[in-house]
Design goal:
four-stranded mixed beta sheet; alpha/beta; globular
Length: 296
């Protein structure tokens, strides 16, 4: 006979300190489960950055939101976990666009979490340190400052450097450009407004670079942030890399308290708006973290 179906998962409350790294969870009773499901307007699967941003936005719009997380820690790639007396944050390296008027700053402010977050700015004279063989180069805050430093190091490449950075900026701006398309005329206008995105942003990054420079060291410096999106220049779309590079033109920041400060702030705002975060995994017990797979 076929094996019996697995039992339905148990659900667990989010503890009051905002993260599941200190206090044990309490089982969610059947009555509360039925009430939570029946009352929810929206169910969000996953408490990563995207899921929590959607959940908080909906909760702030007076929707009853229920978030489910299969891990025992919230945050997805923004989570942190303890091991060997240290806190590890596997997904958040640094965050850009947090200056006045920056897109990320506006997102945090618009979602009501800005007052629960503190960001520490990385060294503006070199928030990224490039080390290639015996060559060193520090990427500074500010696109113009970055351009001047590159041109000082590669004076014969000045024109290509200016054109590369300007094109990356246009592609990034066109990605985020909000344009409503209702008619064929609107579609034609949108194509024109986003022409750099369509004509250059869909090229592989290494072919895009061919338009600006052949210098191997300069190409390496301009693509060093490929580590932030995880795809090498031969396979990465230019649009992805341009968006990442432009994201950091105004420098980098790191959340005080580590990456877990991000889900903590989102959970706090979700609760303030009446939302709820539930788990299908209990809190870890003694010795569990030592048995976690290395991919965690």
């Amino acid at each position: 006979p076929p094996p019996p179906p697995p039992p339905p998962p148990a659900f667990f409350f989010q503890p009051e300190d905002g993260l599941r790294d200190r206090s044990p969870s309490r089982g969610l009773g059947d009555v509360y489960k039925r009430q939570a499901f029946n009352d929810a307007d929206v169910i969000v699967i996953g408490s990563g950055a995207g899921g929590m941003a959607a959940a908080v936005a909906l909760a702030r719009a007076d929707k009853k939101v229920l978030v489910f997380e299969q891990h025992y820690l919230p945050g997805g790639w923004c989570h942190s976990f303890p091991m060997g007396g240290y806190q590890f944050s596997p997904g958040v390296h640094y965050i850009g666009d947090l200056g006045p008027g920056g897109n990320m700053r506006q997102i945090y402010e618009g979602l009501g979490v800005a007052n629960d977050l503190v960001f520490l700015e990385l060294n503006p004279d070199g928030y990224d340190h490039v080390h290639i063989g015996d060559e060193y180069f520090d990427i500074p805050k500010g696109r113009e400052v970055y351009a001047e430093r590159l041109k000082s190091r590669f004076p014969s490449e000045a024109d290509g450097i200016d054109r590369y950075l300007a094109t990356c900026t246009r592609i990034s701006n066109q990605i985020s450009d909000d344009f409503e398309v209702r008619t064929v005329g609107d579609a034609i206008k949108a194509g024109w407004r986003k022409r750099d995105l369509f004509l250059q942003g869909l090229l592989p990054l290494d072919r895009f670079l061919d338009r600006f420079t052949k210098n191997p060291l300069l190409r390496a410096i301009l693509t060093i942030q490929s580590g932030d999106h995880g795809v090498g220049p031969r396979r990465a779309l230019t649009a992805i890399h341009a968006a990442v590079a432009s994201h950091y033109f105004d420098g980098g920041w790191y959340p005080k308290g580590g990456a877990k400060a991000l889900p903590r702030a989102f959970i706090k705002e979700l609760r303030r708006c009446g939302g709820c975060l539930l788990y299908t995994s209990p809190s870890p017990r003694d010795g569990l973290l030592s048995r976690m797979p290395s991919s965690a």
